[in-house]
Amino acid sequence: MAVTNLSTTTCDGLFIISLLVIVSSLFGTSSAQLNATFYSGTCPNASAIVRSTIQQAFQSDTRIGASLIRLHFHDCFVNGCDASILLDDSGSIQTEKNAAPNANSARGFNVVDNIKTALENACPGVVSCSDVLALASEASVSLAGGPTWTVLLGRRDSLTANLAGANSSIPSPVESLSNITSKFSAVGLNTNDLVALSGAHTFGRARCGVFNNRLFNFSGTGNPDPTLNSTLLSSLQQLCPQNGSVSTITNLDLSTPDAFDNNYFANLQSNNGLLQSDQELFSTTGSATIAIVSSFASNRTLFFQAFAQSMINMGNISPLTGSNGEIRLDCKKVNGS
């Protein structure tokens, strides 16, 4: 996605500048308006404050890193990266927290609030909630042993939420690969981004309710998903019996559940992907995703580089900048409400 590097491009000439603006608008992003030094003069310790708060949260909640990056992901796919997912219900707002992909599963809001409180104490009214999610994602990944990257900043926060959009635009773990690819394409992300960002499932947990469709009666066949490893199938059928609780959780990555590494992709090669949407990356005959999975499975450095770039790409989806939106003082509600 050529637009992602525009913010670091230095060039002379009105034609080139105009071209950049045109390309940026075509992709529906404003990455040229985001930059790595946005808070250098107004809140120079912003990144360190975010990181230390998450480090503290990790001590009592090993899942928190995966939960925070999921908030960023689910936010960016709905009206862009504008922290709309953080807004609570109000008289004029239907919260995205009640959308099917988020209800009873999106978590980490309390840690976001803790980060925001620490930032407000240090730099009142400066750092947006949408930038908190972007910074928190990078910190969560690097603290779990994954890559680091330069987070582009300068997003502002939405004044409303989009419940319908959250229900329709966020990729589902029970959707086909073609549907998920279309949802990524709709926000300017390509197949490489899809596979790389799916690699975030190298840490964190999932509820029985998002994968039990694979265990007993897959797609109405009366049989389990044939692409599910038989040993894993047996253990999951015990964990998630028919008519059992849909809220029981298990690790997304069987081998290193709390480490950010490339084992997720090796799991797919042995049919040990937990979610249907994960395993389809490797088991969909003829898909371009298969070669990408294999390359990431054999080369951790390649995956880390691709993941970092794809996180930047995702963070560039339609941000509010300039005078659009606001800097929320409380991430849960719009200012003055």
From TrEMBL:
It is an enzyme of class 1 (oxidoreductase). Pfam families: peroxidase (PF00141). Binds 2 calcium ions per subunit. GO terms for molecular function: heme binding; lactoperoxidase activity; metal ion binding. The keyword Zinc does not apply. It comes from the Eukaryota. Its EC number is 1.11.1.7. The active site is at H74. The keyword Amino-acid biosynthesis does not apply. One of its GO terms (biological process) is response to oxidative stress. Residues 1-32 form the signal peptide. Gene3D superfamilies: 1.10.520.10, Peroxidase, domain 2. Substrate binds at P171. It is found in: Secreted. Residues 33-335 form the Plant heme peroxidase family profile domain. Keywords: Calcium, Disulfide bond, Glycoprotein, Heme, Hydrogen peroxide, Iron, Metal-binding, Oxidoreductase, Peroxidase, Secreted, Signal. InterPro entries: Haem_peroxidase, Haem_peroxidase_sf, Peroxidase_pln, Peroxidases_AS, Peroxidases_heam-ligand_BS, Secretory_peroxidase. Ca(2+) 2 binds at T202, D253, T256, D261. GO terms for cellular component: extracellular region. Removal of H(2)O(2), oxidation of toxic reductants, biosynthesis and degradation of lignin, suberization, auxin catabolism, response to environmental stresses such as wounding, pathogen attack and oxidative stress. These functions might be dependent on each isozyme/isoform in each plant tissue. Belongs to the peroxidase family. Ascorbate peroxidase subfamily. This is Peroxidase. It comes from Cardamine amara subsp. amara.
